[in-house]
């Protein structure tokens, strides 16, 4: 093609044309430098070298892995392992430090907050919620009401060994089934439930003798919940005067709890998680705002 | 201009789609522009090679290198300026300035950048100097390249390439010094203790410098660089460019012929067709063909021509900086003029001054303290047993000063008796928490804000988090909300 048309010389530029013409526009043959072509060849050679060295061609059930055995997956895993190792180093510092030290050392606190938040999402959120606000039967960890105590050490103890789970160190408190086991009759249950409701600010049901309810309370409940109903953290007996009602704050819910109490269970985490993770969780939960 | 253009010989062979680059043997010249180019070469290369060794005291623990890009630490230092990664928009400003400076140079005097300052030109000039001292000037080099390979030729070529590689190696070596403490890195490099990346970068830059300045030379300007195309579109009749004054030079002819013509009373130009301008040209163009893409306007043809004109007793300046407009005016017998102040130069200068002023203002008023606030999303608020409401926030403090600083945190917009707590921070001033942030660092803390007892807060209260440094008075604020049921 070139030989058939290439004799034509453009009069203005003095450059030979390629013989290609589009609506009167002619293409000048300003040749590309040879080195440009050589670079193209070099890239072809480079590509072949690349096939040999790096993973490139898909096969039916695998791929050519290349002589270097390079793998981004392996690189990512190595980086992940390096991260874990790095984390373990700071984690060791957490084991040695006291909870109070962790809270007051910015680097440790930042680490504990981050790892505590992650561990909380993995282990605690299913019951306590991702925002730690709890649900009926599962305590809210954001507020300032604590059944088993809200200091760093209390929280650490509760997370480590749990509640009513059979672990030797677990928190234990057992509310008797006053109604189910026939300790109180139905009327007494109604009276005491209304009395408790009244000290919590609920409106009592019509025609219920609150004085009788108070007597029932003093005789049966005060040993754990206290005569004033303020509760006792050592036994996990909640304060009945406020809004710390795990199973619902209504006369009906209180009656249910007196008749047929639910004693909630929390697993022990010390046997399952790293000691540093448990510490991080304690600091994180404490930092949510309710910590004492 | 096209009238003066000589037709280029068309490729005759069948396989003419690719052309071998014609080897160019630039001749040594002496003169004003050569002197300017040497001076600029010393200045620019001096800046490049020695800047990393300039020290700048930023206090203990901070790097004391005046110009440093600390990739690992994510900071860039330039004398008194320190840039954090989120401030890379300063680079945008610099790029605008660079582009506008290029345009302004072009409007004033053509390809000043290409001819005098471009690294490609400067390093090629240095490599040519080496070549000239090892292999001799143009004529010797042409003859030697045609000779068969003798021991002398091998030795000279060997020494040249060795020296080129040495310069290229130093170029790569200086490059990596901008990314780490230079004196330390020099020792580490010499003792084989530097990072692999440092050696790899030196190798890459050695290769590119050696190839581009030693072998590719004008091919880079003609085929790789976009600027010649852009420049041609930006120039105008009033811009100074290196030009051949055809009104004075034509008709050209040898000294003898022209003398004969003059004696016969026929017109004869000053150009004696000696080809010195062509031989001096590092890109191999004939300036007498007019302004062209290959010409980097380095001015060496001016020096070459002036030397000849002086020898033959004619006035210098047959080739010189001139405007298209003036060449036409002279041909028409009109007086020449050069207007440096034109709408084009004014616009570029105003943009440069404007961008520079904005950048200077941004740098001068750069916040050295900063605060970011993120309200808790779950829960939005917490009701406490005493009836008060608590909101939680994640607050990040930024301290861009090279010293540790104490920031007092307060929240504007809340009722008087409300309380602020920072988790893990017990220090207070006037009941306000004081957060210590390390030099040149950020610190993230959890902040709890409590509404006062007995006050019913509205559903949403706009608040302003304010940090205040007692010592300097530096302040930063961030807006957020206090939510309540």
Automatic annotation (TrEMBL), chain A:
InterPro entries referenced in this protein's UniProt entry, alphabetically: CcoP_N (IPR032858), CcoP_N_sf (IPR038414), Cyt_c-like_dom (IPR009056), Cyt_c-like_dom_sf (IPR036909), Cyt_C_IC (IPR008168), Cyt_c_oxidase_cbb3_su3 (IPR004678), Cytochrome_c_Oxidase_Subunit (IPR050597)
Keyword presence, Transmembrane: yes
GO biological process, one term: proton transmembrane transport
Protein family (similarity comment): Belongs to the CcoP / FixP family.
Sites where the protein binds heme c 1: 124, 127-128, 266
Electron transport in keyword set: yes
Span of domain Cytochrome c: 111-200, 208-289
Needed cofactors: heme c
Organism: Stappia sediminis
Sorted UniProt keywords: Cell inner membrane, Cell membrane, Electron transport, Heme, Hydrogen ion transport, Ion transport, Iron, Membrane, Metal-binding, Oxidoreductase, Repeat, Respiratory chain, Transmembrane, Transmembrane helix, Transport
GO molecular function: electron transfer activity; heme binding; iron ion binding; oxidoreductase activity
UniProt-annotated binding residues for heme c 2: 175, 221, 224-225
Compartments (UniProt record): Cell inner membrane
Assembly and binders: Component of the cbb3-type cytochrome c oxidase at least composed of FixN, FixO, FixQ and FixP.
Signal peptide positions on this chain: none
One Gene Ontology cellular component annotation held by this UniProt entry: plasma membrane
Cofactor note: Binds 2 heme C groups per subunit.
Name of the protein this chain belongs to: Cbb3-type cytochrome c oxidase subunit
Known role: C-type cytochrome. Part of the cbb3-type cytochrome c oxidase complex. FixP subunit is required for transferring electrons from donor cytochrome c via its heme groups to FixO subunit. From there, electrons are shuttled to the catalytic binuclear center of FixN subunit where oxygen reduction takes place. The complex also functions as a proton pump.
Residues that span the membrane, as ranges: 35-53
Gene (name only): ccoP
Pathway: Energy metabolism; oxidative phosphorylation
